[in-house]
Amino acid sequence: MELTYYLSAKVIQRSECMGKNVIVDWGCYCQGTHFDVTHLRSNQEEADTKIILHAFDAASRGTTEITIHSPDTDVFVLS
């Protein structure tokens, strides 16, 4: 878990330096570079459902195109 936290913090830090907008989700935490995403915090263990949660949130914010890339059949079915 410590490695996951470290890598998540580095992704946020690097993205901010590059002016990129990202949302990083790990464990039950979620952090974004461009707006508050505390409403996306979830204790779901499976990433499958978290991906759908994030896609739904992006669509509700006006995103018109979402690409989900995953080799997992469950993600395909949920999408």
Describe the structure.
- It is a single chain.
- The chain is mainly alpha-helical and 79 residues long.
- It has two domains: 1-43, no CATH class; 44-79, no CATH class.
- Helices cover 47% and strands 10% of the residues.
- It contains three helices and two strands, in the order H-E-E-H-H.
- The protein has helices at residues 2-18, 47-60, 73-78, and strands at residues 23-26, 29-32.
- A two-stranded antiparallel ribbon has the order 1-2.
- The longest helix has 17 residues, at 2-18.
- It is globular.
- It starts with a helix and ends with a helix.
- The relative contact order is 0.12.
- The model has no long low-confidence stretch (mean pLDDT 89).
